Amino acid sequence: MPHLLDNPIYNALSSAHHPISLGSKVVKYYFPSFASFAGLKDNSTANFEELYQISEPESFFIVFSIKALEISNQWKLIREINMFQLVYGHQTVPTGDESEFVDLNETHVDEMIALVQLTEPGPFLEKTIDFGNYTGIFENGKLVSMAGHRFNPTPYTEVSAVCTHPNHLGKGYAYNLLREQIKRILAKNEIPFLHVRDDNEGAIKLYQKLGFKIRTSMIAYVIKKA
Q: What angle do CA 17, 20, 23 make, to 5 degrees?
């Protein structure tokens, strides 16, 4: 039987994120202002055809798959990203110092988008913050590190948008932000997980240090209507 996290986007849009989803029973995608992700029930040719038919012109999506897909000609393949999916394997919060965090809100969105554009941890749009639990660290009044939640295929919650300004690396900010995210997810009796490019060795080592374990490989396909 397939694991829930084999298809995290579709299962998130079928459970906790159903109120912010569009589409059908087998093809679902987020409101465009929230995220550009689409979840297909079985990533079949028929699923991609239905996504093409029901989505708006010029639509742009990111689709995850645990196996390689052949993207049909009606879609332009913009980018293919090889990733690992990691799951937190403990019921306790990693050891570490308690740090001062700021709970980020709509007033911080411009700074959050600027930090994401600089560091490229993944897409971040105007309403992405509504996925919740975004926390940040500021220095001299400027946002220099942040992390938050994204996909929520119950009972799993994804940690996402983990990034630190290049001028502030090596200060332990990412570790402490991740530790806070893990604490918040465990407090909801849910299980933390995340995705990372498989060539990002530094991030993978950090996640493993915190207690995450690689569960599977995952491929992200960035596509646009041809």
A: 100
The residue extents of the domains of the chain are: 4-83, 86-216
Residue 224 near residue 58 (C-beta atoms within 8 A)? yes
In contact, 73 and 226? CB cutoff 8 Å: yes
CA 165 to CA 146: how far, in whole Å?
9
Question: Superfamily for 86-216?
Answer: Gcn5-related N-acetyltransferase (GNAT) (3.40.630.30)
DSSP H helical segments within 188-224, as ranges? 201-210
Predicted structure pTM score: 0.95
List, for residues 112-156, the tens digit of each pLDDT value: 999 999 998 888 999 999 999 999 999 999 999 999 999 999 999
For 218, the token pair is: 């995952």
